[in-house]
Each structure stands twice: as C-alpha cells, then as structure tokens.
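Tutorial sheet, problem 5. The two components below are modelled jointly, 600 residues in total.
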Amino acid sequence: MLTNNAEAREEYRNIWVVAEVLAGEIQKVTYELLGAARGLAEARGSEVWCVVLGNQISSQVDALFHGGADVALVVDDPSFMNFVDEDQATVLTRLIRTHKPEVVLCGATTRGRALIPRVAVDANCGLTADCTGLSIDPENGDLLQTRPAFGGNILATIRCSNHRPQMATVRPRVMNELPVDTSRTGRVITGKLEADEAGGLKQILKVFQDSENSVNLADARFIIAGGRGLKGADGFKMLKDLAERVHGAVGASRAAVDSGWVPYYHQVGQTGQTVQATVYFACGISGQIQHLVGMQSCDFIIAIDRNPDTPLMQLADVAVVGDLFEIIPQLIKEISRT
Amino acid sequence: MRIVVCVKQVPGTHDAKIDPETKRIIREGIKVVINPFDTYAIEAAVQIKEEIGGEVIVLSMGPSRAITVLREGITVGADRGILLSDRAFGGSDTWATSYALSRAIETIGDVDLVICGKQAIDGDTAQVGPGIAAHLSWPQATYVMDIADINSGSLTARRMHEDGWDLCAVKLPAVITVVKDINQPRVPTLKGRLAAEKQEIPIWKAADIGADPERLGLNGSPTRVVKTNPPQGRMKKSVVLDGPVEQSVRRLVQELRQRSLV
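Model answer (structure tokens):
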C-alpha cells in the first residue's frame, strides 16, 4: 500500500549512498555520491551512510570513510558476487525499513537503474532518475532533485514531500569526490542476507568483462565520436588512437553503428546513450537531432567536418573545417608533443 | 506463450513543450510517435511468437489517440492491443504508471512475459520496466541485448552493462527491457496495416483493471515536478577554424590547453 508517511518523516534520518560494486571493487561513482551526500548531510545535520552489498569487500570499507562516509552498512555474501537485482532489492528494502534513511542515492548506471526502481516500489517511495543536481530546500528540508529530460532539452526539479525516503539515481561524473582524508574513520554495521531473501528467481550463468568492445561512455571525461564521415571501420582505428592519448572513450553516431563499423556499445544519442563528458569530439558527424539530444550536455564540444554548416558544426564550441583524415593524425601528433 | 509489450507514445523530438501549470510534458496537439525503443520490444515479442508460438498484446497508457501506437504494433505483428485511458491516470509518475500497467497485466491474465523498451525518450527514466516487475513480484532482466533461449518456464538473456555483459536465466513470468542491439524491427507491410486498421482496440478504465484509485495518477505519485527550466544555453562563442590544417590543429590544442583539458 502506498502510504503517505509524511507524519512520520521526522523518524527518517541520514543520507544513504548505495555502493556500486563491480567485480569486487567499489566503483568511482560511489565516492562521487559520498561527496554529494556529505553536503546534504551537513545541511540536514545528519550522517552519511554507505550501504555495500558485495562479496569480500571488507578491506575497502576504510576507503569509504576516507571518502566521506560516517557509517558503512555492509552485507557481505557470496551471492552478491553477481548482480541479482531481485535479491539485492529485497535486502535493500528491508534495510530501509529497519534503519529509515531520509535520502537514498545510487549511481545511474545500468545496474543502479535496474535495482533502485524495484526498491522504490517495494519501499513505497518516490524516485527521481538520472539526477544532475541535488540540494536541500532550506524551508522544509526536502531534497530538491534536478534532472535533464527529453535528452537534455529541459531541466526538471522534482521533490517528494510526502514520502520517505526520498530516492534518486545520480549520473556518474557529475558530483565531485571529496579529497581523500585518511584520518577519517567511521562505524561499521554488519548486516546479513536472510535465508528467505535469496529468491532464486535469477541465475547468472556467465559474466563477460568486454574490455575490447565495451566502453564506459557515461564515465569518460573525453569522448571521441565518429560518424558517417569516417567512411569505415578503419576510420575508427584513428579515433581509438586519439582516444588512447587523451584517456578517452570512442563514441559513434547511429549511422556508423548501423553500418557495422563499431558495436552498439558506442552509440551516442536517442537510441544509444546520453553522455555528459567534459570534452566531446564529433568527427564527421553531421548532428541529426537524435544525436544532439544524446550529447548536447557535454561541457566542451569540438566538431571536425568538411562542411561548416552541419548542425553539429553550428553547435560546437570549436568547429574545425577540413579533412578529418588530415586533421586527426595532426592532432594526435600535436597532443603527443609536450 | 502470452507476451505483453508495453509501448508509449512520445512527442516527436522537435516538439518538446512543458505545461507551465503542471510542469509536465504537454501531450495535446503535438505530433507523437511510438517510443523508438518500444519498436525493438515489439519485434522481440513477435520473433518469440514466431519461434515458439503464442500471442503478442501491445499495451499502452495514455490519451485516446495513443491508439495509433497500438495500431503500429499490430501492423508489425502484434495480435491485439489494449489502451488504458482514464482521467484517473493523468499526472502519473513512474510509480503510478508501473502500478497501473501491472494491474492491466494482471487483468489480462496468464501473461508469461512482459517486454518494454529500455526507456522512453521523453522521460528517459528507465524506471517503468523494473517498476512493473516489482509490482508483480516478478524477476526482471534489463538492457537486454540478446535473448539466448526461451521456453515455457524460463528465459535466458544477455544484459548489457557499461563494462560488458552477463548472461542470466530468469524464471517466467518475468519482465525484460530491451536495447536497440537486440534486433532489426521489420518494415510494416500493407497487409499488416490493413489488419491493424480493422482491429477494434478496447479502452480500459481504472475500474476495469481493479486499480486502487489512491495509487493512480497524481494522487498515487510520490514525486512532484516543482519547476522546469531550459538548460543553460551554450556559451555561444563558437570558434571556427577553417585555415590550413596545421594552423587549425595548433589553435585547437591551444583552446584545450587553456582550459587545462590536455
């Protein structure tokens, strides 16, 4: 039953961060969220808790304290080695009912975006997806959640006054980690997976870390993206080379993916991924609206194309007119020369 | 196998407008299209039907003109469509939307599999698929890029993640959400179009799905949009470099260095 629990809202305290654990490692987005949670907790006069569901992760708990957590609520269980969203949602919902956090934050990753909506339904509370801004309303202490919608064409601010906890998934790379403070310590609360919480609804048969083909566009500071102008798979080798020099990731337009030049993992835009990199290089991409909505929130956009009049060249902060097969090798040379 | 595909009508990309009162997307009087991800969901369902038999039902919640997206689904192979349309559904957030859809799925009955697109291109939340699964207490597989196997009791699918993929088997009934990589939607045929035009599409109201009115629409939505803003415009000071390559590149690197980006 979706009960409005506004009267009981004073019972809900503390800002929670649900850790993202991948192959046994707590991921960077967790520390970014701890940074954001710290500010919120200070505004609310409460604590930052980091909830970790993982397998043999106790050695990483100190890093959570160094990154801003006051409490680590750890459920260590071999079954958390893989991502079984149903069981994780069951455990998280129980922890929420027991400890009553005021705010729950989770990374807006493929895993976070699968897990947290289940928890929000089970815990009868509101959830805002893909936030890029979080603050506390000084009037009543509500969490104000800002998120882009329509591929970044609007920014909406959302609140959830009558339900606790207030839940949000937050985009990676948007919040700032705190400087590591090795003098910080905290409390560890150890939880466990109850016998009836392993539902047996899902079995993970195989896990494949696809370092060759997969690309973490959401997490990349630099994205080097190519389109039809690259003329083929070989063109993308050149982009990969540039991406390696700047520790970036390779993106692609739909046209390039549909032509089979690069796998779908790389696609940026409406039917691919929405990205928010610091620098976006668009090489030979004309910039159909479906592509623009996936990348227009990037901070600094550079376009390279023969045609100066394409939508992307118009949008770009720096538009380089010319043959990208001459420009990119020259750019690689120039960047390497330091 | 009975498969329900949830589809959404979304504003065409060029037409995003916001109601200053409700702060929600204005859906009246603008061109709407089927959410692009949902076309992959329909194709996945139709392929399963062709392989192992069964029925594909397209389900949508929205104003009466959302019938057009249901007809689109029938055109490319769905057997029938159902529209949830009632004032009581208005203003629903993802919690209330997934509740209403889950009630409709229960009302349809004997459903083995629900397929949704990864997310809708207007809200971009990706929350409704897992929300439906949670309301029904069914397992889920999100960001599915490949269905490796399906039989009457279980489904094996490859889930795409940022760092690769995993292969999971879920018990049926289940909810899956699919990405574009899963298939190539078929092109509608004239025959399909004629069949779709002839179909009667039932419209279900809140009472028809036995929904608790307290959990529907704005009442049943924990979240409230308090304001919407256009994003900060880009600093419109484009630098155009159209000189010789070496000169342009040097200047570009300079621009990056000034911002400490390289």
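Marking note: The domain at 2-215 of chain B is CATH 3.40.50.620 (Rossmann fold). Full credit if you identified this.
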